[in-house]
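Supplementary Text 2. Reproducibility record for the structural model of the 99-residue chain.

All settings were left at their defaults, and a single model was retained for analysis rather than an ensemble. We include the record here because the model underlies the residue-level annotations in Supplementary Table 4.
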Amino acid sequence: MTSPGPYRLTGDKMLQTLDNWDRLMNFRVQLIACGGTALTLLKIKESTKDIDLIVPVTDEYKKLMKFVKSIGYQEKGGGWETHSDQRMAPHLPGSFEPN
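Retained model, structure tokens:
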């Protein structure tokens, strides 16, 4: 099996990112993986090009948007990215609405 290209994410890399977030967060958020993200986490696909997540609870979504902004992610092209590794930016649809 060949390794994924430089702009692809494996399930292990996605889980590592989410685990890192979990260590930094002082709240819980329900996340639903969809698209290539779900297929990669289920090991149906080897990798995906981005992370697609749904946050079904509005208050949790708002908290998560504040959190990702606080750790250096920036809104771009309908999703979010971080300069430290643009491939690790999840695609979180919607706009950031500060309280």
